[in-house]
């Protein structure tokens, strides 16, 4: 079986390393416009399964060519590019996994599901950490209850890097966009919008993370969980943002530097947010420099045995362990491990229907059972409220 890993930053490399260990996989093509990380992985592992190719994911003709003879395409590129790449995979009859959900798919999931069905393709969208594992945890929690009406996703990271200012341990472009646009929340069965970084809340993450300030941001789970888990009337996503990062994000927004519209700067077309991101270190450059832990917590509220109850599911990993064992950081590792689980579900045949899957539609217990094999312990509690 041949797998193409498109995007070989920190999350893609984690995913590719796991997928290459699968006995059914004969070759993993590491494709990116920047090949340094891919070449390091290929030379470090020396399994003979890796082949590195320089490819710009914006060049859709090159994407089409690399898909020849491919069984599964895993996309770890910025979310704004995913839909076009997915369409190329579907056109080529290639199974597909990505780590984030295109807005067009959220708006009309049934349309893209029919497209996959007509092409005879199995596709899993949004199968990273959050979205991805978080959605699966929501499904798992809802299944532990007799009925569910609220879901809360919390992303926590207490990582610090001495001497480094503004940084993100996953796609800096996606992160900076997330904290500078209005935040979606699902209340009383409909989507409402809050201003960016509207209200700080201290959330008690389980150890080793501990209490952190969190804010609502627009995330796929806010839309996907109510769409696919029956009875959910309230859903939101909050991510840990420290005071310094929040202040920087607010200033970037006030200056208009969060815009994705091109401006002419001395004859050169640039998007302001791209300029901001270019000043930040890449996630791969931060490997080994961060101390602390990252994790995902999902709380589902509903009824159990006639009483109000909360099913809580979470996982966490330290940045030091992620670096020591996997040459990564915890944030990137969680995303890449989630993506690897998605790819392996298709490779193994555990998910074989020729259609489009959201993470909530995957077999939750199967997904959770695969995570300890990737070094991620999953915890669960049921509390009557």
Please outline the helices and strands.
Elements (H helix, E strand, L loop, with lengths): L1 E5 L3 H11 L6 E6 L3 H10 L4 E5 L5 H7 L5 E4 L6 H10 L3 E4 L4 H5 L1 H11 L3 E2 L8 H12 L2 E11 L14 H7 L4 E5 L2 E5 L6 E5 L4 E7 L3 H9 L5 E7 L2 H12 L8 E3 L2 E3 L1 H7 L14 E12 L2 E12 H8 L3 H19 L7 E2 L6 H7 L7 E7 L1
Parallel strand pairs: 1-2, 1-4, 2-3, 4-5, 5-6, 6-17, 7-12
Antiparallel strand pairs: 7-15, 8-9, 10-11, 11-12, 13-14, 15-16, 16-18
Helix pairs in contact: 1-13, 7-14
Molecular structure report:
The protein has 385 residues and is an alpha/beta fold. The chain folds into two domains: 2-129 and 334-363, Rossmann fold, CATH 3.40.50; 133-243 and 280-328 and 375-384, 2-Layer Sandwich (Dihydrodipicolinate Reductase, domain 2), CATH 3.30.360. The chain is 35% helix and 27% strand. It has helices at 10-20, 36-45, 60-66, 82-91, 103-107, 109-119, 133-144, 172-178, 220-228, 243-254, 272-278, 319-326, 330-348, 364-370, and strands at residues 2-6, 27-32, 50-54, 72-75, 95-98, 123-124, 147-157, 183-187, 190-194, 201-205, 210-216, 234-240, 263-265, 268-270, 293-304, 307-318, 356-357, 378-384. It has a seven-stranded parallel β-sheet with strand order 3-2-1-4-5-6-17, with helices on both faces. Strands 10-11-12-7-15-16-18 form a seven-stranded mixed β-sheet. The mean pLDDT is 95.
